[in-house]
Structure formats: structure tokens, C-alpha cells
Write a structure and sequence with these properties.
This protein has about 375 residues and is of the alpha/beta class. It contains 17 helices and 16 strands. The strands form 4 sheets. Strands 1, 2, 3, 4, 7, 8, 9, 10, 11 and 12 form a 10-stranded mixed β-sheet that branches. A two-stranded antiparallel sheet has the order 5-6.
């Protein structure tokens, strides 16, 4: 079956939405089994001898309590079920940018310990080859490890995002693009919609067999790296990544029609707006919707009437800035800025705003949360 047809086939597959109140191992395992009971057992997705890629979100080197990365207990619970089915597990991801010390990422996120408990190896996509594919905005290079896996189990985290406003199951697969190539795509396609075309193009080459979203504690505010943890208490499981993201967006109070990843998916023929055919199994969506969920500041600007945004263009802005109190002058952001517009001055990165494309890569990669989003006074008044 062609890849696009495979996505269309998955569209509107049901989503199991279940309570998962904490990351206690027994609670996570029980929530996961309850969700799979509503869909299909793990043995439906994983056969003996399958090479199974578990793809968590390992955006940056932060501990699980920061809610930036998929919680390691989710990884362990899923991994145990896969091993029970005779699957051979690989755990792999590529964080933002091209960090030098990947061991630190595995350790801080708790993935190293999770892999040890499962008795499996961790794998960095950076150390393996890629294959390239054409995409609407150019081409995408994808890790051979992901392309050659028999089964991909996608383990995203429910979070806000500075550029695409929400991030979840579809965007999590962007991590199969190794290292700096991800930042480079920001440079080629700085605006949300063109960049989202890349996201959808990558996703269409590595369609997960199953998606299990960690929404036990998600992230609100200026995600995906500098927002605040927010308790949601949910696990979402489905074959359809788009449908999981649609439901997650509703939990976050976002207007789905205006989300660039969905717009790009519609353009690519991978998604349609027919909202009445989806099916939620388990608990009702209303139990999880958070009316006071804090959106990223970019969402607030989106809500300003277009006529005001057009007429006051120069006065309405949001841009990254470094916080000298938190910055350790590690230069990670400088090394990974796709526009090379950051310079260390007196031990703090200064940004050349004439070149900055507001891609958010510096914010994502900073291990100290030392990059924040500065909003103009007019934007604050109108947002
Ligand atoms: S802002 Fe963050 S990533 Fe950049 S130099 Fe400072 S600590 Fe390092
Ligand atoms: S300064 Fe930050 S937001 Fe601006 S282009 Fe560089 S990495 Fe992107």
C-alpha cells in the first residue's frame, strides 16, 4: 500500500482516552492495558521477532518532572508489553540541534534507566545513515533505523509549541530526522505552514503502527521546552496520530482549523476536516478539557484581529531573548542557531533580530531555560 493511502487508511481510527492519574508503574501499566483493551491487544500490532522502534520525545536534556520529554515509565510499560509479544526493541530519538553529549540526554530524561530495566539498547539516530525523500519545500533526510523498523510505536508528549502552537503525535515523528538537519529545515521554511509541510512529509515516510500519547502531565505556556508542567491525567492511544493530536488540541483549547500541521496535512491529502466520524473510546473528552490551559504566547498573538496585526505590524512582535541570570554560556544555542545570528557577548548570547527567523530552536535546545519569549507592549495589550 502507498504511504499516503496508508495514512488515509488510518484516518479516523478510534482513540482510546483513559485516565492515568500518575506515573506510578502499576497505574501506567493498568491505564495502558485498559486503553489497549478498548482497541486491540499489543499482539495485534507486534509479532514475534519484529524489530520495534519505540520513539519517545527526547527534545532536550531535562528530567521527567519538567514535562519536556516522554515520561520513562510510559516507555517501560509499553516496552514490557512489546517484549511479552516477542518484539525486539530499539529505543531511539534525535534531540533538537546537534548536541555533543547525547549520554547526558539519555541519563537526564530517565531513558537510560528505562532501557536498563527493559534490558534493551538505546540508539542515537545520529550514528546511523539516512535516506532522502522529496518534500513540498525541498527534501527530507530520515534515519534508516526508523525506515527499516518493522513496527514504530510513537510515544509523544502533549505540549504547546512556539511555532506550531501544539505538538504531539505527528510532530514527534520529526525526531527521526537526525541532528542539525532539523534546524536546517527551519531555515528553509521559517513560517509555521511551510515548516509544517516538512513535518507532514517526514511523518508520511515513517507512519507509526501505534501512537501512545503521554498526557499524564503535559506542558502549557511556551512549550515545547520552556513551558510549565500541567497535570491532565490522560493517556491517548490510537493507530491514527492525527486523531490523537486533534483530541489533544481540544484538551488544550486550540482551534484545530488554524493549526498549521493540520492545514499542511489537508494540503497533502492526509487529513480532512470531517469532525463527526471520529470515535473516542473509554472516557469522555469533556472530562479532560482544561478551559484555563495556558497557550503559547504565539497563540495569543494569533487571536489579535488580522486588521490590527496588519496595521500595527511593527509594534506587534514576539522574539527570543536570553536571561543572563540563568545562562551558563554553554553556547549550545549559538552552535545550533540555523541562521547563525547569535553571538556570545559578556557570557550571554545576543541575537541579531534582523536575521532571526523565530524558529524557536534556541529555546528548545537550551538546557537551562535561559531563553524566553519577549512580547512587545502592544502585543501584550492586544493579546
Ligand atoms: S542561553 Fe542556554 S543554550 Fe544558550 S548559552 Fe545560555 S545556557 Fe547555553
Ligand atoms: S536566534 Fe533562536 S529563534 Fe532566532 S533564528 Fe536563531 S535559533 Fe531561531
Amino acid at each position: 500500500m502507498a504511504l499516503k493511502e496508508q495514512i488515509v487508511e488510518q484516518i479516523k481510527k478510534p482513540v482510546a482516552l483513559v485516565h492515568c492519574k500518575s506515573y506510578e508503574p502499576a497505574i501506567v501499566r493498568s491505564a495502558l492495558c485498559a486503553a489497549l483493551d478498548l482497541l486491540e491487544p499489543m499482539s495485534h500490532f507486534v509479532k514475534r521477532g519484529d524489530r520495534v522502534l519505540l520513539k519517545p520525545n527526547m527534545l532536550s536534556a531535562k528530567e521527567p518532572s519538567k514535562a519536556v520529554t516522554t515520561h520513562p515509565e510510559i516507555l517501560v510499560a509499553v516496552g514490557e508489553l512489546v517484549l511479552d509479544c516477542g518484539g525486539a526493541i530499539i529505543i531511539g530519538d534525535s534531540p533538537a540541534g546537534q548536541p555533543k553529549d547525547l549520554e547526558k540526554y539519555w541519563d537526564k530524561t530517565g531513558f537510560a534507566l528505562a532501557a536498563k530495566r527493559l534490558g534493551v539498547e538505546l540508539l542515537s539516530f545520529e550514528e546511523y545513515g539516512v535516506r532522502s525523500f522529496t518534500a513540498p519545500e525541498g527534501h527530507v533526510s530520515i534515519s534508516e533505523v526508523a525506515l527499516d523498523a518493522d513496527v514504530i510505536i510513537n510515544l509523544p508528549k502533549l505540549k504547546t509549541h512556539l511555532l506550531t502552537r501544539t505538538t504531539g503525535a505527528v510532530k514527534n515523528m520529526f525526531g527521526v530526522v537526525p541532528g542539525y538537519r532539523k534546524s536546517y529545515m527551519h531555515s528553509l521554511a521559517p513560517d509555521p505552514l511551510p515548516f509544517s509541510r516538512y513535518v507532514v512529509a517526514v511523518y508520511s515516510q515513517v507512519i507509526p503502527t501505534l501512537n501512545i500519547m503521554d498526557a499524564v502531565v503535559g506542558m502549557e505556556g511556551n512549550g515545547p521546552s520552556s513551558g510549565q508542567p500541567r497535570e491532565i491525567g490522560a493517556l491517548l492511544v490510537s493507530e491514527d496520530a492525527f486523531e490523537i493530536d486533534r483530541i489533544a488540541a481540544q484538551i488544550m483549547g486550540e482551534n484545530i482549523a488554524s493549526l498549521p500541521v493540520f492545514q499542511a496535512a489537508v494540503e497533502a491529502g492526509c487529513w480532512n476536516w470531517d469532525e463527526n466520524t471520529s470515535k473516542i473510546l473509554g472516557n469522555s473528552l469533556e472530562e479532560f478539557i482544561l478551559p484555563d490551559f495556558e497557550p503559547p504566547e504565539v497563540s495569543k498573538i494569533e487571536r489579535i484581529p488580522p486588521i490590527l496585526k496588519r496595521n500595527l505590524k511593527r509594534l506587534i512582535w514576539i522574539r527570543p531573548r536570553s536571561n543572563p541570570k540563568l545562562c551558563t554560556a554553554c553556547e549550545l544555542c549559538i552552535d545550533n542557531c540555523p541562521e547563525s545570528c547569535m553571538t556570545l557577548i559578556k557570557d550571554v548570547p545576543e541575537i541579531d533580530y534582523k536575521k532571526c527567523i523565530k524558529c524557536g530552536c534556541c529555546d528548545e535546545i537550551c538546557p537551562e531555560n535561559a531563553i524566553y519569549q519577549e512580547m512587545s507592549l502592544m502585543a501584550k495589550l492586544l493579546a
